[in-house]
Design goal:
There is one protein chain. The protein has 16 helices and six strands. With 670 residues, the protein is mostly helical. It has a four-stranded mixed β-sheet, with helices on one face. Helix 6 crosses helix 8, helix 11 packs antiparallel against helix 12 and helix 12 packs parallel to helix 14. Keywords: Repeat. Belongs to the SOLO family. This is SEC14 and spectrin domains 1.
Length: 670
């Protein structure tokens, strides 16, 4: 019956085995009844499951059933007792019903639960008597023979040392027999008329007790004899195993380590040596496991405190520990040496790969597209070189550690001077470090050359970029000259200021042009140094010259217009401000004609575009700007014309007056 199928019923705890035992060593089964109605079917199922748990030997002793009816009705208690009598009478030896004390004062119950057991079989008693008597004789002989003779360490255990019967089994049988006899006597002493012990059973009990006491005494002595024999045997076995461990470690184990002295010349070779060392360690581990077991056994024997064996055990333990610790130290040293060699070769391999990568970068042609790409490549190159320097430093450190370990390497043999072949390992380590140093130095020299070249390329791209910028600036100056420098001034003073600003403006353009020319010249020099043809300077120089010529033509035209405007305003202001209507001084006619001629020439020039060397044309400012300037000039010409007419009228009036004055005497005479 599986518990999972009746788990809900078992959780109700209608009955349970508490683990306690009665005087007969029988198990105690408890049935706690509650105030609620108890299902007899579920109780029967629970009992069937619980009674299937103990062994058949335990069941044979019978169960003591405790029915706790303190919280239940009496009719339920009687039903449970009757169920026990009908369902499991073979397993039940005693039923105890628990009820409140006042219950028995009120009610008298009449039911009897008893079962007739078979009388104690004499075959059991006779068997125990026969076996125990024979066993006592054998144990006495063994104990006396062992006590009367000195322990012989070389004497093996023979069959005569072992008794014919197992003492534990015979003692167990005697205890069970005695417990059964005592239980029968106890049941009979309670006054029950159902059963009473027989006389032979009453006489058998003291005899069984006497046999048990004698048997226990002899068995205790026999156990001590066995312990001493076992101890001597164990000591002999320990000594044999200790010598086996010592002989192997000092023989084949030491020879294995003595022949393994190389460190390999590459990562793969060092890995192969590590694998070989792991195999050696695996073989040693088996013997070390034997050492641990032997050490525990010897420690246990030493704790027993037998003085006759202490010195021998301590000597064996010390010898075994010394050999094992020395061999373990050699294994650990070899393992650390191989690990350092593996790290050294791994670092050397990584450094070699980095040097190959750096050399590949240095041997490849540099074809950057701009200065930023050159700087990025240069930065990457510097990072590679720095990484190589760090790896080389790490190689030196690991190589020094490995050299120190090799120099501190002790002899593989105990007490023997054996030359370890370390010169080859030392030469290999130093050769690897020197080779890496030379390769790094060559790459570093090449990096210096490449760095200089790339810095020149950065300067080249910078010069080309700045030259292009100079062309753009010059173009912007030309554009500003054509579109914003259109005013000619309202008077001579303003025109003079505009002339000064124009000269400064031209100076700025001249500086920009000269700067661009210098940059392009530097580009040519850098390209010659780098042994490469110019890419952008061939296009930039014509553009620079073309824009400069356009600017020169435009600035010259602007200068001539400002100079004409200055001459016009100066002459006009001389006419307009040099004489007034009341002034007796008159302006020469040539001055008026000059102002008129300059003004008309200036007006005509305003309508003419700037013609560039390539034949293209460009006007100053917008048509409205030119119209405004022309209108102002025309207004001044009109003012000058008005002043001319006024001067002519004054001159005519003056001539008429002089004529009248000249004619007045004549008229007076006539």
């Amino acid at each position: 019956m599986e518990a999972t199928t009746i788990l809900p019923i078992l959780k109700k705890k209608l009955a349970f085995l508490s683990g306690g035992k009665d005087r007969r060593s029988g198990l105690i089964l408890t049935i706690p009844l509650c105030s609620e109605q108890t299902s007899m079917e579920e109780l029967s199922t629970t009992l069937d499951y619980l009674l299937s748990i103990p062994s058949e030997k335990c069941k044979a002793r019978g169960f003591t059933v405790i029915v706790d009816g303190r919280k239940s009705q009496w009719n339920i208690v009687k039903t449970v007792v009757l169920m026990l009598q009908n369902v499991i009478p073979a397993e039940v030896s005693l039923v105890c019903v628990v009820k409140p004390d006042e219950f028995w004062d009120k009610k008298v119950t009449h039911f009897c639960f008893w079962k007739e057991k078979d009388r104690l079989g004499f075959e059991v008693f006779e068997k125990f008597t026969k076996e125990s008597t024979s066993l006592l004789d054998e144990l006495a002989v063994i104990n006396e023979s062992e006590a009367g003779s000195q322990p012989d360490k070389d004497r093996p255990l023979d069959g005569n040392f072992l008794p014919s019967f197992d003492p534990e089994t015979v003692l167990q049988t005697g205890h069970e027999l005695l417990s059964e006899l005592q239980q029968r006597r106890f049941n009979g002493s309670e006054g029950s008329t159902a059963w009473s012990p027989m006389d032979d059973e009453l006489l058998a009990q003291p005899q069984v007790m006497k046999l048990l006491d004698s048997l226990r005494e002899q068995y205790t002595k026999y156990q001590e004899v066995c312990r001493q024999r076992s101890k001597r045997t164990q000591l002999e076995e320990i000594q044999t195993k200790v010598m086996q461990v010592v002989n192997w470690l000092e023989g084949p184990g030491t020879e294995q380590l003595r022949t393994q002295w190389g460190i390999g010349d590459s990562t793969r070779a060092s890995q192969a040596l590590q694998q070989k060392h792991e195999e050696i360690e695996s073989q040693h581990s088996e013997w070390f496991a034997v050492y641990v077991e032997l050490n525990q056994q010897m420690a246990a024997l030493l704790s027993a405190g037998d003085e006759e064996d202490l010195a021998e055990l301590k000597s064996l333990q010390q010898q075994l520990s010394d050999v094992c610790y020395r061999q373990a130290s050699q294994l650990e040293f070899r393992q650390n040496l191989l690990q350092s060699a593996h790290e050294f070769h791994g670092t050397a391999q990584d450094l070699s790969q980095q040097l190959d990568g750096l050399l590949g970068m240095l041997c490849a042609d540099v074809t950057p597209t701009d200065g930023a790409a050159v700087q990025q490549t240069l930065k990457h190159l510097e990072e590679k070189l720095k990484s190589v320097e760090g790896a080389l430093q790490g190689l030196r450190e690991k190589g020094q550690i490995l050299l120190d370990q090799i120099s501190n390497q002790t002899s593989w043999s105990y007490g023997k001077d054996i030359v370890i072949k370390n010169k080859e390992n030392i030469d290999h380590i130093q050769s690897v470090m020197e080779d890496m140093q030379l390769r790094k130095q060559r790459c570093e020299d090449m990096v210096d050359v490449r760095r200089l070249k790339m810095l020149q390329m950065v300067q080249l791209f910078k010069c080309e970029e700045d030259a292009t910028q100079a062309v753009e600036w010059l173009g912007e100056l030309l554009d500003a000259l054509l579109k914003t420098h259109v005013r000619l001034g309202d008077d001579a003073q303003e025109t003079k200021i505009l002339l000064e600003k124009h000269k400064k403006f031209v100076d700025v353009a001249q500086s920009t042009y000269d700067y661009g020319r210098q940059l392009l010249q530097a580009t040519v020099v850098l390209c010659q140094s780098l042994r490469c043809t110019t890419r952008s300077s061939g296009d930039t120089l014509p553009r620079l010259n073309r824009v400069w010529k356009q600017f020169s033509v435009t600035s010259e035209e602007r200068l001539q217009r400002l100079e004409m405007a200055s001459a016009f305003h100066t002459a006009a202001e001389k006419i307009l401000t040099g004489c007034s209507e009341q002034s007796e001084t008159s302006v020469d006619l040539e001055v008026y004609e000059e102002v008129e001629a300059v003004g008309k020439s200036l007006l005509d020039r305003l309508t003419v575009p700037v013609i560039f060397p390539d034949g293209s044309e460009q006007y100053f400012g917008s048509p409205s700007d030119m119209a405004s300037s022309a209108e102002h000039i025309r207004d001044r010409i009109k003012l000058v014309e008005v002043r001319r007419l006024q001067q002519e009228e004054v001159e005519v009036e003056a001539a008429e007056q002089r004529l009248e004055e000249e004619l007045e005497p004549t008229l007076r005479d006539s």
